[in-house]
Amino acid sequence: MESQDIKPRKPQDENIVTNKELNIWEALIPVLALVGMLAFNVLIYGDDALSGSNQFILLLGAAVAAIVGFYNKVTFNQMLDEVAENVKSTTGAILILLMVGALAGTWLISGIIPAMIYYGLQILNPTIFLAACVIICAIISIATGSSWTTSATVGIALIGIGEALGVSLGMTAGAVLSGAYFGDKMSPLSDTTNLAPAMAGAELFDHIKYMALTTVPTITITLIVFIFLGFMQDSSGVTDTSLLLNDINNTFNINGWLFLAPVAVIILIIKKTPPLIALLVGTLLGGIFALVFQPNIVAQITGADSLTLTSAYKGIMNAITVKTTIITENETLQELFSASGKGMYGMLTTIWLIICAMVFGGVMDAIGALSRISAALLSLASSTFGLFASTVASCLALNVTASDQYLAIVVPGKMFKKAYEEKGLAPENLSRTLEDSGTVTSVLVPWNTCGAYQSGVLGVPVIDYFFFAIFNWLSPFMTLLFAAFNIKIKQLRGKLA
Predict the structure, then answer these.
(1) Residue 255 main-chain phi, psi, to 5 deg
(2) SS (H, E, C) the chain
């Protein structure tokens, strides 16, 4: 039996609403209004736009769509019913997001994530520094599910090391971001990796597996280029991560047994266990490992002097549900560990975004706007490549205009979903394209929240690292290359063309 964790109903069973009263220009009014309002909102709020104001803008966009619907004889109940169906379709995605937060929390206090970081840092080799930056940041980003956390902690340290070695700051920043965004894309802990399949109607681990088809070649090319650039460097100096490694060791009981939990989850995924079950098992194993290997940490986060039944229960439950703070004298580790342990509470902003996006999409669907836009797109994009190219262009446009990577996934995801279905393409094609063009290119736009954040944290202007963020700008070209040559394009029937 196929898992239905993300999409309770099959794509082919979804009702496509048409409205002969609606023309293409009327269908585009809510879209243009939404993009304009989002652009203005991000201009005012900057990095804080995702904290709630963007979500409300999506509701305002839904209101504009509703006005267009009323004008074209669509009733309020019709719109509300479609919104309800849309929100219902994301039930699995919302539960998975909550479980991802829980998993991250227990894997932090159990020492699983710190162990990944500990062993990942030891890969660092001065002779291949730039390639090592990619690998280290990829490992840490996969472990934490956050490119922002990776660049704000280890990324800063690597920038300092690169500067001491005489390596170009632009090259180092490009290597850091290439690795960080690779990990962000491929980690089931990442909110964007959960968001893309939720918008497209795909399942999380199917999305990750399918995304690897374009992502692995892209990161391979990136590594080859950085290895070449590394050997071209006339650098000197000694890299020393011993202090960081010692601080991790002093805070946690690091050992190889901790990797049993990730291995167990990987085995469950390979055995095609539903994602919710695999993540739940991983969360519970993380809690058990925390009690066995890190009893002092569990007691510490509850403020208890020693581990008791009460402090053990509260410590595990706090890690699962709310943000967890690990106390350490190393400020870099303090920031990294604090950002990693978000719990289910840390996923609520993304869940809020999904629900509001579903409201906008539901109203757009109810008034017939999505089917009208899909028909226009299909008439313009007569080929599979044309549809992929249109999706990439839309994601790039939203990253430039709306200045937010989440919205570059949400809006095209909802708008293009019908077009992919009508072309007979599996939802993984859309979810992969959203990530290959929406997630990774956000950091290349200086006024985008991601571009502004990363350049500010690393202290390197976007224009300096733009060319060296090879993975980020190469990804959309790779997905278009696969589409142009019809390489493993998955059809709705489940076969690869």
Answers:
(1) -155, 165
(2) CCCCCCCCCCHHHCCCCCCCCCCHHHHHHHHHHHHHHHHHHHHHHHHHHHHCHHHHHHHHHHHHHHHHHHHCCCCHHHHHHHHHHHHHHCHHHHHHHHHHHHHHHHHHHCCHHHHHHHHHHCCCCHHHHHHHHHHHHHHHHHHHCCHHHHHHHHHHHHHHHHHHHCCCHHHHHHHHHHHHHHHHHHCCCCHHHHHHHHHHCCCHHHHHHHHHHHHHHHHHHHHHHHHHHHHCCCCCCCCCCHHHHHHHHHHCCCCHHHHHHHHHHHHHHHCCCCHHHHHHHHHHHHHHHHHHHCHHHHHHCCCCCCCCHHHHHHHHHHHHHCCCCCCCCCHHHHHHHHHHCCCHHHHHHHHHHHHHHHHHHHHHHHCCHHHHHHHHHHHHCCCHHHHHHHHHHHHHHHHHHCCCHHHHHHHHHHHHHHHHHHCCECHHHHHHHHHHHHHHHHHHCCCCHHHHHHHHHHCCCHHHHCCCCHHHHHHHHHHHHHHHCCCCCEECCCCEC
pLDDT per residue over 239-269, tens digit each? 456 777 888 888 899 998 998 998 888 788 6
pLDDT tens digits, 172-182: 999 999 999 99
Q: Determine the pLDDT at residue 335.
A: 65
The pLDDT of residue 300: 85
What's the start-to-end Cα distance of the chain, in Å? 23
